Amino acid sequence: MDTGQSFAVYQDRYEVRRVRKTSRGITVVSAAAGAAVVWTANHWGWWYVSVAAGVVLGLVLRGVSRVVWAAGLAGILGWLLPLGLRAVEGQPVGRLAERVAGVLGVGSGAGAATAALAVTGLLGALLCLCGAWLGAALRRMRG
Amino acid sequence: MRRRRRIGRWVNGLCAAGATLVLGDLAAFGGGPLPPLGSAFNPGTGVWTAAKDAELPRDTSLRVPGLQQPVQVKFDANGTAYIDAKTDHDLFLALGYLHAKNRLFQMDLMRRQGEGRLAEIVGAKALPSDELELQLGLLRTAQQEWNQMGPGSPARQALLAYTDGVNACIGEEKRNGTLPMMFKLLGYEPKPWTPVDTLVIQGDMTQTLDFTTTPLDYALLVQSLGYDRTMAWFPVQPPNAQNPYDPGPYRKDPPAPMEQPVPAVLPATMQGTSFKAASRQIGPSQGRWAPPAADTAAVLDVLERLRNLPPAAIHRGSNSNNWAVDGTKTASGKPMLAGDPHLNQTLPAIWYQVAARSPSYDFSGVSIPGTPVVLIGKNQHIAWSLTNVQNQATFFYQEKTDPSRPNQYFWNGAWRDMQALEYDIPVKGGKPEHLTVPLTVHGPVLTTKGQTLSVEWIGALPSPDMEVLLGILRAQNFTEFRDALKDWHAPSQNFVYADDQGNIGLISAGYYPIIPKGDPWLPLPGTGESDIAGTIPFDDIPQVYNPPTHVVFSANQREVGPGYPYYIGTTLDFFDAGYRASRIADTLAKGNRMTMKDFEALQNDTHDVLAMRIVPKLLAALTGQKLSAEEQGAQRLLAAWDGNMAVDSAAASVWWTFWNHYLSDTFQPWWDAAHVPVDQDPDLAVGPELTSLNQDLEAWTLNDPDNPAFTAPGRAHRTAQDVMRQAFSEAVADLSKQLGGEPASWTWGKLHARQFPSLAQIPELGYGPRPSGGDRWTVDAASGGLVSTAGPSWRFIVDWGTGVEGVYPGGQSENPASPWYDNEIPLWWDGRYLPVWHVADAGPGIQATWRLSP
Fold it and tell me: What keywords appear on the UniProt entry (chain B) (predicted)?
């Protein structure tokens, strides 16, 4: 379909698409490293490190999908794996999640507990993703 | 093109930065009802740390700063703590540490309520409560109590050690990021504990048990029903049969002086709440003044504001039971004692069970988190339990003022300046709210709407309760027990007693204010003539020791007979109707070779004495009447019923519904005709909650069935039988409509339930509603309406010959994920008990040991 516009209009987008994505291997390693950093920082209550880790991932990785996957995984894993470990150690994470959901007004039962855990993972992911978005934007602004 | 591309990158960057900022703001500071999400939910130090805290304790060693010697704390399978300390100081410090470890949020909430600091954590919705508490002055009283404690007093030493223990825990939890989850969800950290905080919690309890608004209710009744009818239907002396535990003979002596009230001029600044007071000045003019009737606007304003207090702040239900019998009536040959204080039932519960031993102490029982003593329990030689005396402790004064004399009132022949206390109340998410509390000689001015109304509340006077309770913990016999109680001022309590030497007793300790002129149950003139002149001397207050009946008991009934020479309160203000007392008196009088099982049965008894008295009259009134099939079914249920408000009893439903209709059919026409302002004061609604009306109706039904009250104003003549028949018919129709089916299916559990709400008022953290037996008049009381939220908060039985047991509806931990959050509720519900041990006996069932070291 002829839109009547020259090819130059789309040049910018084609340039973006031409950017070479970070390899899968590096992406996975970066996500794991990010999750480890987030986990460790959370141990001390430094939740804001999730944002910083995301910024680093956004700066380092190439390709939107790679950045999203790595940052999202780092956030989710960095926030939910410690809870999984608590559960493995025998701590009543599920029961607590149900009570936390109750306090938040989500309701009670297994669904509510899942929601409380999901909120926690989602928060970690969002913090990392926002950081990654910021990192990627900074990288692009820097050229 | 490049410029556009650059702009696009900047826009993208700004959007990324904006999104990060918004999310970061929510994570760091929260928003609206949301807590700071980052710190609240992060898995390392957020709410999830409560999962580890919810694990049951294991053997471990802990460092607790401030200890003088190592302390051993053992926990049994139900969470009861056993503290073994080498010094008294360490006992109280360890208790503070344990309380904070298990109930820190509850303690913080309780001190905040009394200190008027709830709005700081929950926002402006708590302002009315904060303002009222600062007006009433729990914080001022606590400060005064603290200032009055001598440097060497055991109470001061205990409070200081206890405070150190609480602060050791707060410090540890802050460092480790393991504060209870409610702090994280509300987004704040607890301030350091102070001894005054403990005394404020003592004040909370005094307010719950002792503060009443009944004079204001009386004022509204007088204005609508008229004085004569009000006093006929809400009399001073109960019209029904009573069981005073102290039948006399009585003595009368001149009033004893009372502790001085809190001075209006306060020197201190306390935790950010600033006080400023003007000095008292005496004006030159004098005058005579007769008080007007209490102004409705003023009364309603105060009542409206009092309704803004948290649900448990003022206790409205029935209260408690306790009793003791000597060895002549027990199988063991030794005295037995029982106590079950009825309070608002919450999760976490009001009690924390503990046993402790040190050089001066060896006790076991239940404590209130935030206070360093066991309130109900035993030591090696004596056992005790408490019920509320229910004498009048709150007096309202109509101050004489003059618009031309702002901030002055007339008292004792002269115009005086009111004193002003200034407070700044912190408000979460808003500016601090400024509050000015004017004070007269009687106490804080609660309203100036239409009339200047102040309140003199005995709970606002300093009361050395901690000193007294420590004295009781150390007491070895009745003489020492009684001596300790001489200094108890408020809340007035019936202390039942039994010892290992075979003695029993009961003392209704506390202040009993004497008003020389006027009707104390109404708002009084503030000009001086009706000021409190003193208290009933200690030797004259209700008390018995080793009575010839071999039995002592209290259940909030009037403790003395009509011959008692002092005014102590009215049927509405606020003694119980006496049905629980009657059941207990009858059971104990008949009892012989009683065992702990007998006491258990009595504590869990759900027989309604009022029903047992009235149902035969109702059945007689129905005899020969033409009844529908459903009415006949209901009649048969009642005929075969023994008055047991069991959860599966259909007759109980018929009785309860009938009685409510009977009350309504008798009194509502009068209420309507007199325009009793029920809309503005729901406490005046005709129903079982108005104690006096139950007593009236009982007395009239049994002895005066032709009482004019049965004839509604302007209507045809009626008798008790006429109204009973009408009420029965309405009750059956009501139940048929509400529950359907056969009358036999109308079980009490379909109408009545118990619920234990969470202290934080979060439904998912509470328990129930669950169908339950009992009602407000059964020994196993269920107060608060058809979904009862008040009742036995701790059941305690001591047999000096065989053992001790107790149970409370809750658990030791406030952590809702802990198995010890509500583990005792099933036991309590089924009427089962757990053994209560001293430290030395705590061998079996020990779950873990903590070794605390300095």
Answer: Hydrolase, Zymogen
What CATH number is associated with residue B620?
A: 1.10.1400
* Tokens read off for B689: 């909650």
Last residue of a domain, one of B727, B751, B775: B751
Question: Is pLDDT at B653 greater than 50 in this prediction?
Answer: yes
Residue-range domain boundaries for chain A = 20-142
Is B816 an 8 Å CB contact of chain A? yes
Inter-chain touch A134–B16, beta carbons under 8 Å: yes
Instruction: Out of B155-169, B272-286, B743-757, B794-808, pick the least confident.
Output: B272-286
Asked which of B66-70, B210-214, B288-292, B443-447 is least confident by mean pLDDT, the reply is B288-292
Quote the pLDDT of residue B317.
Answer: 61
Q: Which domain holds residue B730?
A: 609-642+648-751
Query: How does the average pLDDT of chain B come out, rounded?
Result: 93
Residue A11: the pLDDT is 53
Other C-beta atoms lying within 10 Å of the C-beta of residue B596 = 21
**Residues of chain A contacting residue B42, judged by C-beta atoms under 8 Å apart:** 42, 45, 47, 79
In-domain check, residue B698:
yes
Q: Is the pLDDT of residue B276 over 50?
A: no
Task: Return the structure tokens found at B34.
Answer: 């949301």
Is A51 in Cβ contact with B47 (below 8 Å)?
A: no
Interface touch B181/A103, C-beta < 8 Å: yes
Residue pLDDT, tens place only, B445-494: 999 998 999 999 999 999 999 999 999 999 999 999 999 999 999 999 99
For chains A and B, CB pairs below 8 A equal 137
Whether B182 and chain A come into contact, CB under 8 Å, resolves to yes
On whether the CB atoms of residues B422 and B134 are closer than 8 A, the answer is no
In a domain, residue B487? The reply is no
Q: How far is it, in rounded angstroms, from Cα B111 to Cα B290?
A: 41
Per-residue pLDDT tens over the stretch B337-361: 999 999 999 999 999 999 999 999 9
Instruction: Specify if B10 maps to a domain.
Output: yes
Q: Give the minimum alpha-carbon distance from A120 to chain B in angstroms, rounded to a whole number.
A: 6
Q: Does B43 touch chain A (CB under 8 A)?
A: yes
- Domain final residue pick, B701, B736, B751: B751
CB B298 within 8 A of CB B401: no
Interface predicted TM-score of the whole assembly (ipTM), two decimals: 0.87
Would you give the DSSP letter of residue B282? B
Q: Read off the pLDDT of residues A33-88 as tens digits, 9 standing for 90 and up.
A: 999 999 999 999 999 999 999 999 999 999 999 999 999 999 999 999 999 999 99
Query: CB–CB of B16 and A130 under 8 A?
Result: yes
Side-chain half-sphere exposure of A83, counting CA atoms within 13 A: 27
What is the 8-class DSSP label of residue B589? H
User: How remote is the C-alpha of B451 from its chain's centroid?
Assistant: 30
Give a yes or no: residue B745 inside a domain.
Answer: yes
Active site (annotated) includes residue B783:
no
pLDDT confidence band for B286 (50 / 70 / 90): very low
- When the pLDDT of each residue in chain A is averaged and rounded to a whole number, the result is 88
Count structural domains, chain B. Answer: 2
d(CA B738, CA B100): 47
Are B455 and B397 spatial neighbours (Cβ–Cβ below 8 Å)? yes
Q: How far is CA A55 from CA A63, A135, B311, B651, in A?
A: 14, 4, 49, 71
Look at residue A1 in the predicted model and tell me its pLDDT. 43
Q: Where are the alpha helices (DSSP H) in B368-477?
A: 465-474
Establish how many alpha carbons lie within 13 A of residue B228's alpha carbon, considering only the half-sphere containing its beta carbon: 1
Closest CA to B781 of B507, B585, B583: B583
B24 CB near a chain A CB, below 8 Å? yes
